[in-house]
Amino acid sequence: MVAEDDLRTVLDELLRLRTRVPQLTGALAAGVDGLVVAHDTPGVDPDGLAALTAASLGVAVRVTDATGHGGFRELLVRGERGYIATYAAGRTAVLTLLAQDRVNVGRLHLEGRRAGARIGELLDAAEAAARAVSTPARTPPVRTRTPRAPRTAAAEPRTTTDS
After folding, report:
1. Distance from C-alpha of 151 to C-alpha of 163, rounded to nearest angstrom
2. Tens of pLDDT along 95-120?
3. Paired residues of 83 in beta bridges
């Protein structure tokens, strides 16, 4: 679970990114599971885009594994009217950017990689903090001994002849 302040920080990063690259038409941060973290995607359904991003990410990861090119870093798709670029953002998130066809692709990559790294650091730190709160440090159990009653010699029955 990501704190509200962290979500606002991610959204602020998306808005600043759109300012730095004016040809961006949308920006989305999502988990690799396809759930939206934050978005600025006017005219595009963020839930649908996050789900499609997760599906394309799955294929891209398999391609990089099958070809021995290491872990996933980014994916670029070019359509007739623009680009869809997806960048790794930490261990559990991705950044997807929508851009016009006239965007400077080098600038798109530069800014997308930087923003992905910042968002990834933030979300990874938030996840680690949440995990630390929900899973307290393991300490070995304290063993206590239950005191036993002192041993006494069994009393022998007395007979009438004993005095």
Report:
1. 25
2. 999 999 999 999 999 999 999 999 99
3. 78, 99
Q: What is the DSSP string of 44-113?
A: S-HHHHHHHHHHHHHHHHHHHHHHT--S--EEEEEETTEEEEEEEETTTEEEEEEEETTS-HHHHHHHHH
**Sign, Cα dihedral of 70, 59, 101, 96:** negative
Q: Is the pTM of this model over 0.85?
A: no
pLDDT digits (tens, 9 = 90+) for 20-69: 999 999 999 999 999 999 999 999 999 999 999 999 999 999 999 999 99
Taking the C-alpha atoms of residue 131 and residue 126, their distance in angstroms, rounded to an integer, is 9
Q: Say how far apart CA 20 and CA 113 lie, in whole Å.
A: 13
What is the identity of the amino acid at 87?
Answer: Y
What is the number of other CB atoms lying within 10 angstroms of the CB of residue 124?
15
Residue recorded with tokens 């600038």? 107
